[in-house]
Amino acid sequence: MTNYYRMTIKKRSKRKTIVLVMICFMGILSLMPMLDRDDRREGASGPRAASEPGAAKDEFTEATEQAGNEILAGDSGVDALLFKEGVVQKGDTVMTLLGDFFSPAEIISLARECEEIFSLSRICAGHAFAITTQGDDFHGFEYEISAAEKLRILKAEEGFQVERAPIEYDVRTERVSGVITSNLYAAVDAAGESPELAVRLAEIFAWDIDFIRDIREGDTFTVLAEKRSRDGQPAGYGRILAAMFINQGQVYKGFLFETAEGQAHFYDENGRSMRKAFLKTPLDFARITSGFSRKRFHPVLGVNRPHLGTDYAAPTGTPIKSVGDGVITVLTRNNASGNYITIRHNNSYETSYLHMSRFASGLKRGSRVRQGQVIGYVGQTGWATGPHVCFRMKKNGQHINPVKLKTPPAEGVPQDRREAFTGLVSHLTTTLEQDTSQTAEAAQRQAVPAL
């Protein structure tokens, strides 16, 4: 493991310094009688001796005493705080990270104290951590749970103080825009941004735009996004405050708005929720290799038969998401479908995801899943000629074409929050709609004041 140490207080050689200060004082005291005799020889007009009560001290004595006091104040006997920072490596556990300071029994006790805040068994490789010591004693431990939050453990008089704390970033808001020439990833990259922004943008409009089938050359996007940095280094994106996507001439807008309950969701300019009952597709980006058909030539069996789903081709291991909230009713494998999952969403709808390479960990029959949750990964199990997912949907027990499904949106902005929402939309729209006719070459980032 690669670690480095950073001292916050420089250690001094305390005993040596104190001895030197005391020698200086003893030397000064030994000179006092001679200085006093010399002053008396000068007569009454000379300055009073420093040894007399109320007399002014000479400059050397004052400077020496002041320096001594500063050194002694700095050398209080308190050991320096030492920070050990690093990244959790594969195979590391809380026992390996803190084993130099605590016995196994003490670590078990610490784990119990942390359980309600964050289970120490969930410490993962690749996450940053920091250990603070004072001398040979443990002082504190921090572990970055996610990009937004960290676990903080501090030694207390009795036991430990355990809490979750936000990770602090420097944040600025920027306007980012681009033009589609081939796909969304390429357009975001051309705008100088990371793939994360493409994924976030696709998630906002996932209920209205199929980013596999619908986007065209010349489509445009604009985003008002928070960009974060730590210690002067880029650290990803914060919130997306507003976004606009023009797809085949149709304008879609989304505005982030927090309800009175503290829940933040995206709504269109009229206050309707962007979220609908089902996502358009179970993959963020892929291509359709075979659509819904009552009669299709089967590439493996070599005969015509119904294809009651939509095939999305993607590299093996691509995450597959549930298109809606629901309960897993089937999680199994067979010769034809390979690894597959069926989810019941309500009394009317159910969806199936076939040919997975593997299931997401922790899932089983009866598990509840939420919309957008990863349930498995693209594969080539069963009767398949290449890695893909066959996505199927039933309504009232009958197979339907999911591409043509239209579902109503979720609940919109509450009436008592409409005025605040309208003000926010008016404020953000002015910036969002600037220069919407920009070409791909001119669609560059423009900084805007923090909101």
UniProtKB/TrEMBL annotation:
CDD domains: M23_peptidase. GO terms for biological process: proteolysis. Keywords: Hydrolase, Membrane, Metal-binding, Metalloprotease, Protease, Transmembrane, Transmembrane helix, Zinc. InterPro entries: Cell_wall_metabolism_enzyme (IPR050570), Csd3_N2 (IPR045834), Dup_hybrid_motif (IPR011055), M23ase_b-sheet_dom (IPR016047). Residues 172-292 form the Csd3-like second N-terminal domain. It is found in: Cell envelope. Residues 306-402 form the M23ase beta-sheet core domain. The chain crosses the membrane at residues 17-35. One of its GO terms (cellular component) is cell envelope. It comes from the Bacteria. Its main location: other. It holds the Pfam family Csd3_N2. Its cofactor is Zn(2+). One of its GO terms (molecular function) is metalloendopeptidase activity. Residues 432-441 have a biased composition (Polar residues). Residues 39-58, 432-451 are annotated as: Disordered. PANTHER family: CELL DIVISION PROTEIN YTFB, PEPTIDASE-RELATED. This is Metalloendopeptidase-like membrane protein. It comes from Desulfocurvibacter africanus PCS.
